[in-house]
């Protein structure tokens, strides 16, 4: 008993008192559960409560039916039906037994009706493939396979976690009880009886163009073989050389999306888009919705600094926010600012920034930005005028004074260097704060009892960051190889800034070329703010 | 005279105790326990188990009679064992205060403590203090999925040791809430608890393994990755997993990472991994921290530092062609971005249509 553990020297009196208190608490709890003890003016004594409990249990058993009243040895306390029910309910799942050779559903538990809305009868004896999403059929086939169709099996060595290749064709030993399977697949969800649809199954079902919806299931189980002599009711395949029936016995659990949704406060609406950049402001992720707003495709922007797109009037404010977000755990809201689109015009945005700190290294790794378009008639005209001059695209003029930068007269500063500078400040502060020794100190304190810890890396240079974060992951330009970054043993490869910028669509087919021509013609029109006459345009066709 | 009074009161006390013991005996005989178990129960345990019994009765009352109730006892136990075997874990019913109302009897296999020892006690007595917060918040939600550390009295060899020398065992708990309407609106949590099985899982083409340093940078990934996501393994080495995933899944990955640092095991839930060339795939990762391996005489080799091993399942297969926009779509998007009023937009789009035709 845990109580005894603590008190060696406590007087016996105290131990007794504690024991009595515990007993009294239990008796009170018991009294609270028994209806007969309920509306009592004064507290009942121990014996009476116990007697009433006996009566209550007898009454429960009488009312319950034979199963629950079994007092004979039932190791689980609960009758098996109830335990099974409880298990399937907890797991939101059903049991499925499928033959390996023809994927015939040999057995399926009743709980399937709650999950897929098909009755047990509808499914038993059917082919499993009739109910699996067509894109997952190969996956399920592979799991059922018992032949040398998929000879390369991979197992994990439990001790080291290293994969062990088993190149020999699969032998029957792999199929005996214990050969575990685990996979995800989508199964049909019947919409026939709309009214029986459980609330919990709706969020996971995805719409398809035909009449069925699908639920994602996590199936875990194992392979099991029975010699066919035991099976009289089931078909025995006479043409198989082995007279055994092999099945996959699996529990299929409804895969819940709900518990892992992105936090509710990140709600991306159509006029919003998400970006991620390294701590120096260079884009590492741009979602596709961005194109509708900024004109650039994600590939065109990755690796470039966000400062290249900020209007010079906003640089000071945004640099300040940049500094702030790197040092704060909170979300930082920017004011409205202008972002340069592909064709020179500006769009008004307002963003929420938050930085992400790697839990192991405790260093900021990147910044996620949720960007919102601020629309308004006043803005557009100003933007047109400001954006029409192409000069802005090419050279950056003198920028206003930003704290931390030497602002000599006539200084030309590449906008991206602002971000790099801010990032370097942060990295320097890490160097200063980090402890010089690499001991066994855990970032997580004494709570981490089990494993000795390696002290995390601390200092990194900006160039390391460039290597790791630039140009990743969408690169469609065939001329440009994705940098391999850091190999396990070698030094980090130094990449120059130029190679970070992805030129974008450079491999055009003739259709694309035609479109490009059209675009350039239209661009001219729009930038001038006029709508051109059709006759004025010279079509190359 | 006084001796007589004392003797009478002592006798009365003895009689009370006897009566009390009898009632306790009656109570324990009404509980569905094995005789050997019943014989060793102390009084507080009898009450605890009675409480559980009453509560479970309420929980199961809403049990619809879909299941065949008239299965043979033997068959039923076989079937149940099969279920529990597939689950590779045990079932736990928790009250909103954290009392372990019910545990399936195979809990002894995982915790080294028996069902009767544990039932009725509070889960906070047996779990790691740093996980209490998380457990508490999970008691309030409807669908649960979390990882916690629980005391285990099992030794390496599988024997049961004293609770004093218990170690922490990591369990993945999943389940849902159940609201019992009668008699009082009590709700409880139904959970399956299982240690995460990373070993002896037969991997398919739709999963890949990877190893990471503790900051989640790739140190290894297997070849399957290429057919699933398009990258060559070398391309990923040294890169952080956070870079490889959709920005909105940062918090999901963060939680996964924290679980690994604190509890040594984690299930990520679904998140998006970016495919080379555009688009993404929904995946789920099951990960564990592998202790540092120093080569020994029995197991020579390269020394391996502490690292994370991940098995990643692709939930939905990759599309044959990633959903990159067609040139036409891109053009239309760009025009929309440029055009500031709807009239001009219509004109521009009409031009496009004319050209196409």
UniProtKB/TrEMBL annotation, chain A:
Entry-linked InterPro entries = bHLH_dom, Circadian_TF, HLH_DNA-bd_sf, Nuc_translocat, PAC, PAS, PAS-like_dom_sf, PAS_fold
Q: Which residues form the PAS domain?
A: 79-144, 280-329
Where is it found, in Gene Ontology cellular component terms?
cytoplasm; nucleus; transcription regulator complex
Q: Which GO terms describe its molecular function?
A: DNA binding; DNA-binding transcription factor activity; protein dimerization activity
Region annotated Disordered, chain positions: 434-464
Low complexity bias: start-end ranges: 434-447
Primary residence: nucleus
Q: Which domain of life is it from?
A: Eukaryota
- Domain BHLH: start-end pairs: 7-60
Q: Transcription among the record's keywords?
A: yes
Biased composition, Polar residues: where in the chain?
455-464
| PANTHER family in UniProt | CIRCADIAN PROTEIN CLOCK/ARNT/BMAL/PAS
| Protein name, UniProt field | Basic helix-loop-helix ARNT like 2
* Protein species of origin: Maylandia zebra (zebra mbuna)
Q: What is the lineage of its organism?
A: Eukaryota, Metazoa, Chordata, Craniata, Vertebrata
Automatic annotation (TrEMBL), chain B:
Q: Name one GO molecular function term.
A: RNA polymerase II transcription regulatory region sequence-specific DNA binding
Task: Write down the InterPro entries for this protein, in alphabetical order.
Answer: bHLH_dom, HLH_DNA-bd_sf, PAS, PAS-like_dom_sf, PAS_fold
Q: Where is the signal peptide?
A: none
Keyword terms: Nucleus, Repeat, Transcription, Transcription regulation
Q: Which GO terms describe its biological process?
A: cellular response to hypoxia
Please give the SUPFAM superfamilies that the UniProt record associates with this protein.
HLH, helix-loop-helix DNA-binding domain, PYP-like sensor domain (PAS domain)
List residues of the BHLH domain.
4-57
The identity of this protein, by name, is Endothelial PAS domain-containing protein 1-like
Q: What is the lineage of its organism?
A: Eukaryota, Metazoa, Chordata, Craniata, Vertebrata
